[in-house]
Amino acid sequence: MLRFAVPNKGSLSESAVEMLREAGYRTRRDSKELVVSDVDNDVEFFYLRPRDIAVYVGSGTVDAGITGRDLLLDAGSGAEEVMPLGFGASTFRYAARAGDVTDVAAIAGRRVATSYPGLVTKHLAQAGVQADVVRLDGAVETAITLGVADVIADVVETGTTLRAQGLAPFGEPILKSEAVLIRRPGTSEAQQFEVVRRRLVGVVTARHYVMLDYDCPAALVDAACRLTPGLESPTVSPMHNPDWLAVRAMVPRAQTNRVMDALYDLGARAILVTEISACRL
Ligand SMILES: Nc1ncnc2c1ncn2[C@@H]1O[C@H](COP(=O)(O)OP(=O)(O)OP(=O)(O)O)[C@@H](O)[C@H]1O
Ligand SMILES: O=P(O)(O)OC[C@H]1O[C@H](OP(=O)(O)OP(=O)(O)O)[C@H](O)[C@@H]1O
Ligand SMILES: [Mg+2]
């Protein structure tokens, strides 16, 4: 059986579980369930702290899993990112009292509080900056108020937490993070892993695209197909009225309304959008 780690708590947990459910896997019924055997699919799911997942996968204790890119890099384990999963997006940034520290070089000689010491130590070394890294478990924004640090390095999603503490981010983001699928290179369960990967690609793609159907005057079908090229090629079917054709194509969700407007302007009618609930490409 493939051993697969799933975040049991925190920002990534609910979306990760939802994604696995959409991919057709058994998920836990309540939050106290820590191991779920999906015998039909030959996968055993371990619900673990997201911070620990990269460590388990890197050591080979479990074969693969879902965690944040920032947590993967912080762990510095042998696990590798296979693909981004399109949820749990955040940036990882330095911040300080507005105006106190305004670029990375100015961190030299100061104290930096973070829950991601691996990531920060590596980043400071790459920047050639010597500073004291203070490791905290959470609520690091308060470390400056409490006088434990001059600078923090933390996850920023909306920026609300920073603002509430009177802090401002500075420098380029250290990292853009999101939930990622990770694996141990050379895992012995390569075939089962490939099935999980393909299913997750299916879910990510299904979320990224919608299905567009429309009726098109036959004379305009080439122009319409240029607007909706689909993946391989759009499906064009005859209609009862020979002057019209029915066209069906996948369209990136973000472009749906723009494409519908352009099709309508061209002369297409009965333009319908439907959700794709699963796919294999
Ligand atoms: N608003 C957010 N706050 C914290 N982590 C976030 C946020 N949005 C996305 N993430 C990602 O979630 C992962 C951290 O999850 P983790 O469960 O360790 O912390 P958490 O979500 O802060 O939960 P908690 O602190 O309650 O345990 C990281 O990969 C981080 O980038
Ligand atoms: O930019 P924002 O939208 O404000 O989100 C980022 C904040 O959320 C997380 O904290 P969390 O609430 O998980 O507490 P923690 O620091 O104890 O982990 C994270 O550590 C930041 O503090
Ligand atoms: Mg947190």
Automatic annotation (TrEMBL):
Residues 49-196 form the ATP phosphoribosyltransferase catalytic domain. Its EC number is 2.4.2.17. It is an enzyme of class 2 (transferase). GO terms for molecular function: ATP binding; ATP phosphoribosyltransferase activity; magnesium ion binding. Keywords: Amino-acid biosynthesis, ATP-binding, Cytoplasm, Glycosyltransferase, Histidine biosynthesis, Magnesium, Metal-binding, Nucleotide-binding, Transferase. Pathway: Amino-acid biosynthesis; L-histidine biosynthesis; L-histidine from 5-phospho-alpha-D-ribose 1-diphosphate: step 1/9. Feedback inhibited by histidine. Pfam families: HisG, HisG_C. GO terms for cellular component: cytoplasm. It comes from the Bacteria. Residues 206-277 form the Histidine biosynthesis HisG C-terminal domain. One of its GO terms (biological process) is L-histidine biosynthetic process. It catalyses: 1-(5-phospho-beta-D-ribosyl)-ATP + diphosphate = 5-phospho-alpha-D-ribose 1-diphosphate + ATP. It is found in: Cytoplasm. Its cofactor is Mg(2+). Its main location: cytoplasm. HAMAP family: HisG_Long. Belongs to the ATP phosphoribosyltransferase family. Long subfamily. Catalyzes the condensation of ATP and 5-phosphoribose 1-diphosphate to form N'-(5'-phosphoribosyl)-ATP (PR-ATP). Has a crucial role in the pathway because the rate of histidine biosynthesis seems to be controlled primarily by regulation of HisG enzymatic activity. This is ATP phosphoribosyltransferase. It comes from Nostocoides australiense Ben110. The lineage of its organism: Bacteria, Bacillati, Actinomycetota, Actinomycetes, Micrococcales.
